[in-house]
Each structure stands twice: as C-alpha cells, then as structure tokens.
Amino acid sequence: FSQLIMEGRKLALVAIFSLVLSSLPSHTVSVAVMSVDLGSEWMKMAIVKPGVPMEIVLNKESRRKTPTAVCLKENERLFGDSALGMSVKNPRSVYLHLQSLLGKKHGNLQVALYQKRFPEHQLQEDSVRGTAYFKYSQEMQYTAEELLGMVLNYSRVLAQDFAEQPIKDAVITVPAFFNQAERRAVLQAAQLAGLKVLQLINDNTAVALNYGVFRRKDIDSTAKNVMFYDMGSGSTTATIVTYQTVKTKESGTQPQLQIRGVGFDRGLGGFEMDLRLRDHLAKLFNGQKKSGKDVRENHRAMAKLLKEAQRLKTVLSANVDFMAQVEGLMDDIDFKAKVTRAEFEDLCADLFERVPQPVRDALSTAEMTMSEIEQVILVGGSTRVPKVQEVLLKAVGKEELGKNINADEAAAMGAVYQAAALSKAFKVKPFLVRDAAVFPIQVDFTRETEEEGTKTVKHNKRILFDRMAPYPQRKVITFNRYNADFAFDINYGDLSFLSKEDISVFGSLNLTTVKLSGVGSSFQKHADAESKGIKAHFNMDESGVLLLDRVESVFETMEEEKEEESTLTKLGNTISTLFGGGSSEPTPNVTEPVQDEEEVPPESGTEDEAEEKTQKPEETGSKTNPKVRGVVSAGRSVALKRQTWRRFYALLVKGEQDNKTSGEADAERKAKPKKKSKISEDIAVELLINDVLDPTPEELTSSKKKLQDLTDRDMAKHEREKTLNSLEAFIFETQDKLYQEEYQFVVSEEEKEQISGKLRDASEWMDEDGYAATTKQLREKLSQLKSSCKDMFFRVEERRKWPEHLAALESMLNTSSFFLRSAKLIPEDDQIFTEVELNLLEKVINETTTWKNETVAEQEKRSPQERPILLSKDIESKLALLDREVNYLLNKAKFAKPKAKAKAKNSTSADKDNSTSEEKTIPPAEQEKAPPPTVADTEAKSDSFPGPTE
Q1: Are the beta carbons of 235 and 267 closer than 8 angstroms?
Q2: Which residues fall in a coiled-coil region (predicted)?
C-alpha cells in the first residue's frame, strides 16, 4: 500500500513538472531587437539580445557604418559598400539619398533638386499618387519607398547575422523635421521590409537619450539644458533638451528628457559641400584642356569626381591643402590638381553663414537664451569640418564645444535603448522621454448660420497640437452645433516660422478631410436624450504620426438611481462580508484609463467661443472604493465575535429607527435620486488624404511581391554561386589528392585512372557549359563526382582513425582487466559485487580482446585497396560496451554500504539476531538512468542488485 502511495506521489510530481516545463518560454524564440539610424548617406545598426546589452552591428566588411545605397542591375542587386563601388562604373543603377524623396510629390522642389544632383536617373510621375518613381527600364520601375524597403531589409539581414537569430522588432530614426507624409512613407518602407516598427524616434531625441542614459547619476531635480548640434550629410538640426528627475506613479522618481526647442535647415549638410567640391574639381579638369569634352556631361566621370571630393573634404579637415587625383577620369586621361582648405571654405562660404540659424531657431522655439544652455554638444560627421566648428563656437558664445559623445553612433545607441525599453523581452531602467511635435496641427470646419434672414458661412479652427506640443498624446474635439452629417479638415497650423523655401519643400499644408455619416440617424435614435456633441478622438502616437481613433455621438439621459444605503447598512454589509456573510455576486469590471484624453477648447476671442461649448477634460476611468475580501473563519472565538457584532449592529439600527420621525420617513420615501447616464454611438468615418496618398492594399501587395521576387532571385543566385564554387573546389582538390601518398596507397591504378577521367570530363564541362548551367545541373554533377570517389575517401578516412581508436581500445582493455583483478581480490566478507557481475565483465573483456586480435590480423592480410573490415564504428561500439560495464560496477561500489560485523558470543539474543542479519545494498536512484542490461544479465538468476535499466 505504501508503495502505491509513493508511486502516486511520483506520478503527481512528474505531471506538475511537465506542466511547469510547458509553460516556460522556449529558448529558440527570438527576443533580439534592433535599431536603424537611417541617415541620408550612412546607416548604423545596433542590437540588444540576451547577453549583449547594446552593440553596434558590423557589416560584411566589418565596418560600423554602411552606405545607404542599393544597386539594381538586370540580374544583380547590391547593397552598402558594394553598391557604392558600382556608382563609379554604372551610376544609373545605383540609388542614393532616398530620404529626400520620401513623402514628396513629383512637382516638389526637392524632387527637382534631386534630379539636378543625379541627372543619370529618370524620375517619372505616378499618375495616381502624384509621387515620383525611378524608371530604369520598362520592367524595372521602383518607388523611393520600395528602394528604402530594400535597404531596411538589408539592415535587418546584417543585424540577424550579427545577432545569430531572427529579428523583426526595430526602432528607426527619422529627422525631427519629417512631416506626417514623410513619416508614413518610412513606415511603409519598413512594412515592405518585413520589419515591425516599435517606434519612429527623432534622431535628435535618440541622441539626447543616449547622452542621458550614460549620465543618469548626474541628473537631479534641477533642470539642466543641453543643446545638441547635429550636422549630417543631408541636413542640420539644433535641439535644446532639458534633463531633470520627475516623480511618477509607476516607478517613483526617474530621470526625464524633454525636447524644448528645435531648429533645422533641410539643405545644410556635408553632401552639399561634396557637390561643390566635385564641381570645383570638374572646373579644374576642364581648365586643363586635356580633353575636348566637358567632363560634367559624363556621368561616370562625375561619379568618380564626387568620390574624390568626399575624400578630399575629409583630408582637408586635418590638412591645409591636398593633391586631388583620379586615374583615368575620362578617355583614359588622368586628373591631378591641388586644392587648399581656403579654396574649400570659399566654395562653401554661404553654407557656413547658415550654420548659426538653427541655433537661433531652437532658442526662439524654447524661449531661451544661450546663457541658459549649459553645454553645446556636436553630433554628426559634418561637424568635423573646422570652419563649421569655428562659426558655431562664435555663434553660441561658449568657451568650447562638447565632443564627449560618439558623433556617428549616438543616435543608433539611443534608439536601441528605446527598442529594449519598448520590447517585452527586456527590462531596462526607466528613462522618460517627452518628445515634441515640430509642426502645429489644427482642425478646420465651416458651418452655415442664418442671421436676420441672411445665410452666412463661418470658418472655425481649433488647435489640435501646438508647436512643440509633447507626444504621445490623445486629444478630443467636441462639435456641439451639428445634428446632421458634416465634414471637417485636419491641416497644419501656423507655419510662419518656416522660410519660403522650406514651405515650398514642405508639401501640402492640408492633411486629411474627414467626412462623417450617421450623425442625423443617431440624433433621431436618441431624440429624448440630451446631446453632448460629436466627439472626435485623436492620437499622436510614439512615432509622431497623427491618427483619428474614432468619432462618436454622445448623449446624456437621467435615470432613477437605487436608494443609497445608509451608513449603518453599509457597516452591516461590511461586517457581514467580513465574517463570510456577504453577497456572492461578482464585482463588475472596472476599466482603468490607459491614457487620459485632453479636451480641446475653442480658440479664445473667436466667434466660435460663443457657440462651441467648452468642456472639462473627459474622465476615461472611474475610481472605486477598496473592497474587503471575505474571510472564512473557523473556531469558537470567531463565532463569538460574529454573534457579538450582529447584536451590536441590531442595537444601532434600532436606535436609528427610533430617532426618525414619521415625516422624515415619508420624505425619504418620496425622494428618488437620479443619476446621469452616458450613451455613445460610433459615427462612420471616411478619410480623404490631401497631402500624399498612401499606397492601396493592392499596391502594397504588389510591392511586397516585387521585393520578394528580388530576394528570391538573390538567394537563388547565391545558392548557385555556392554550388558552383563547391564543384570547382571539389574537382581541383580531388585531382591534387590523387597524387598524395595516403591516397595513392589505397587506390589501384585502374581506379585512379577512372577517377581522373571523370574529374577531367567534369573540368571540361565546366569550361564549356558549367558556368551557364543551372543550380540543379551543378548539384547533380557534384553528386556524381562524390559518388565516384566515395570508396577512396572511405578507405583513407578509416586508416586515419585506426591509430587513435585502437590505442583507446587497448587502454580500455587494460583498465578493465586491472579493475576485474582488483575486484576479485576483495575478501568474501567485504565483497560488494556478485559472481554474475564479475563473470559478465570478464566475458566482455575476453570477447573484446579476441575480436580485436582477430580483426586486426585479418585486416593486415587484406590489400589496402580493398574495403577494410576493421571499421572505426565497430571499435567505438566495443569501447562503449566496456565503458558501460565498468561504470556500472564503479557506481555500485561508490554507493554500497559496509556490511555489519558479527558481535561477541556474550551478546544478547536480540544482538545475535541483528548480527546474523545481512545488510542489503540499496542502489542509488541514479542507477535507474544507466544503460539496459546485457543478455548475460537477463539470463543470470540471482538475488543480487539487478542490472541497470534505461
């Protein structure tokens, strides 16, 4: 019976253990996340995975940054440095600086500027969306989003190779001045790349986060203002950030960064300097009159000069002059010319004059002065230009500029920290981020009114998000004067802080027209209720993208409320619940707010103020009183307490009823309190996008298929090249092996000639047809050659293994024999092994020795060119059998208990009984996991400990 109980307990434990294991996460699940600092010229990736906190991804060339470039040819696709190298040979097939085309229509000035900078490309207009796309040929046409999707997918491949596991979650950086259309375009490109975007983070915010994370200890309740001046390849941004600790409900006092001011220049960057240097070099070459052609009309020559100009700019940052030179620039003519730093600065004089303006704009936006800024920190590769630092230092009036962060990698590291914080797989120290919207957004609507018989149309606006409004944030706008279907517009607000050029590049100032239907029917359905307006719920998410969550028609009715319980009744219910006498009804669900929605009031001082009612911020959740859980008690003391409390409560109730007059009782019966009840009904919404149309689901599907086809083509090409290389390597290596001594020893002349002939035929086939053959044909040819050489390779491999394997077997036989002799010498009174066990070990030793001697002798008689009978797998099997038998006996000896000694003759009868009893050796639990018994174990009949079982 006790054994049955123990078995039941074991089964229960096994079941519980299995359940726990099934609930544990699998180690194969991908938990790594990545960030992509998507610059106009370079991109940097970083990852976080278990065991690797934050690390920059190295590309295939072991570089820490990768060119944001893609090369598309008829049957080839290249990325990164390989694509950039092709820009000199075939610039028309290489696509660079794609960011400047995102979210832009074909008529945008930025598109015209791109066409001027890269005249080798054909930019066509999409007839539906109005955007620009690249036309390489009739079959090869790509949008900027598709090309950027290819680049993002390549960044994911690099990150996966570096992390050695799949990655899908990413945080991508974008310039702070990206508007809604540009942000949506990046999200579309990421979708095409198969990336799940946790957040689009502004690059200046990512830099500020990286700076703050590594200086967490220096941040306290005193606000500290820091300016980051970021000049990259395509643009410049100045950002003012305030660091201080704040108190939060969730995690107590934590550090926080808040974006206070942003100033930017879309066209001020290192690439414009490169282009001016390139044009200067072209002018010098034309001035040398070595060729009668204009070098500026040759796309390949200009691509070579651009590459040299980029190198020249870097060298002039550390030297006052440098000799620029390009071999075979055009018509096999070499170019060589000296360029000084002074000449470079003269070429870019107007650019350097624009350096201080982003600083002024950032201070103006933040309503600060430079005296309030503690430090100005340089970010971006173009800030290494000496003239930029000189002009900036003079503009900010500081003694020095901060260079204490990695100017190239700060954004990628800050973004990957945010990725880890947003991922559910990692736990990081909180660092609060309050980003800000650079461009204000408002809601515009019109309404017809009639005054003295004259109908007029009133134009109204409500500011949804002010300039530098923090996000993520939800807001609600209430329309109180509509009882029929209507429409309103979502537009950008006052952009007077932008220059005329910025406005022209900005694109459409109108975002979306929202058409509502079903408003009238909702009023008819709830005619008896009081209207509380049409509420539109907006959300600017973590990526800075504005969304219209929903629109609802809200009504309010008055309902009779159940008579409120008196204080004594509540006390009685509480007491009853405390002692197990409460109601068994479940508590209704209470929904806590995720994020409060802010009600947008009408603009002060406008006509709309008199007509549109302003409401307080809506409550999105309700507070509930703490509930007392019922406690089931047992015992006499608890019962006495329950009885005492009930008597006390009954006396209180009786006293309260005696004190009430009949008039008061009548008044209580007549008074029926009422409460307000809210009714909401969703309104159908139709969105008409006014800036840049999003691709339709069909277009997205088509783009995904186009990119997937290219990926499949790349993989097929890679597989074919891999198979081709394997076939070539096998032919050359095998031909060489036929002349090596160990192969000649096991191969007859006839077999050697046969293998050589097949290898020779395969080599000739490779020269004639192999390089045009399919992957399947290459694999078949390789398989045929391997089959022909299989026996030769087997004989050589076996002979290589013999010395080591035979030595191990000989050593094991000696060890086993020594152990057997030692075991047999144990005195009979102390013997822990049975005769069957020792005989079994002796039998295995003898059989193994006989097999080894006979097989080795037989092998020596055979020719080396024949298939061997001494096989390494047989030796390994004999070793395993010996090892199992010896280990079994060793384990038994390890856990055996010493036998009890016989006592003296004058001991008591009880002692005599004990002395004659033989103590049994109980095997350890671990023996249950040993290998199964041999045939000899099953044939032996003995009361000794049974053989090990699996």
Answers
A1: yes
A2: none
What pLDDT is recorded for position 902?
Answer: 54
Judged on CB neighbours under 10 Å (0-12, 13-18, 19+), 454 is: exposed
Helix, coil or strand: residue 107: coil
Contacts 24+ apart (CB under 8 A), 517-522: 517/485, 517/683, 517/684, 517/686, 518/485, 518/553, 518/681, 518/683, 518/684, 519/482, 519/483, 519/484, 519/485, 519/486, 519/553, 519/683, 520/483, 520/484, 520/485, 522/553, 522/681, 522/683
The answer to whether the Cα torsion of 286, 292, 294, 300 is positive or negative is negative
CA distance 889 to 824: 12
Strand pairing partners for 199? 171
Domain ranges of the chain: 33-270+353-434, 439-558, 696-893
- Percent of the chain residues topping a pLDDT of 70: 79
Top-level CATH class of 33-270+353-434?
A: alpha beta
- For tokens 């299989």, the residue is 790
In b/e form, how buried is each residue of 319-350, taking b as 16+ CB within 10 angstroms? eeebebebeebbeebebebebebeebbebbee
Among 620, 613, 450, 610, residue whose Cα is nearest residue 533: 613
pLDDT at residue 652, as a whole number: 46
The pLDDT score that the predictor gives to residue 76 is 84
H or E element: which one contains 208?
helix 203-213
* Cβ neighbours around 834 below 10 Å, total: 15
Angle at 429 between CA 427 and CA 434, to 5 degrees: 110
**Please, what's the b/e burial string for 489-517 (b: 16 or more CB within 10 A of its CB; e: otherwise)?**
bbbbbeeeebeeeeeebbbbeebbbbebe
Question: Does this model's pTM top 0.85?
Answer: no
Whose CA is closest to 143, among 106, 197, 183? 106
Cα–Cα distance measured from residue 772 to residue 765, given in angstroms and rounded to the nearest whole number: 10
Given a contact cutoff of 8 angstroms between Cβ atoms, the answer to whether 177 and 438 are in contact is yes
Instruction: Name which residue leads in pLDDT, 107 or 11.
Output: 107
pLDDT mean over 665-690: 77
The closest alpha carbon to 695, from 290, 149, 50, belongs to 149
| Per-residue pLDDT reduced to its tens digit, 79-106 | 999 999 999 999 999 999 999 999 999 9
Measured distance CA(506)–CA(515) in Å, rounded = 25
623 DSSP β-pair partners: none
Give the whole-angstrom CA distance, residue 926 versus residue 207.
57
pLDDT confidence band for 641 (50 / 70 / 90): very low
* Cα 563 versus chain centre, distance: 55
Distance CA 458, CA 445 (A): 8
For 861, the token pair is 């008689």
Quick check: 251 pLDDT over 50?
Answer: yes
Contact of 377 with 227, CB cutoff 8 Å: yes
pLDDT, averaged across the chain: 82
List CB contacts of 791: < 8 A, sequence separation 6 or more. 867
pLDDT tens per residue, range 554-613: 998 887 665 555 554 554 555 444 444 443 343 333 333 334 567 777 654 343 433 333
Q: In terms of CATH architecture, what is 439-558?
A: Sandwich (2.60)
Calpha distance 209→411 (Å, rounded) = 8
Q: Indicate the range of 63-72, 106-115, 563-572, 890-899 predicted with least confidence.
A: 563-572
Asked if the model's pLDDT at residue 222 lies above 50, the reply is yes
Using a 10 angstrom Cβ sphere, with 0-12 exposed, 13-18 middle and 19 or more buried, the burial of residue 185 is buried
**Main-chain dihedrals φ then ψ at residue 234, nearest 5 degrees:** -105, -20
Q: Which residue's entry shows tokens 């999003």?
A: 694
The answer to whether 544 and 142 are in contact (CB under 8 A) is: no
pLDDT in tens, 464-517: 999 999 999 999 999 998 989 999 999 999 999 999 989 999 999 999 999 999
Predicted confidence at residue 580, as pLDDT, reads 44
Residue with tokens 């209720």: 529
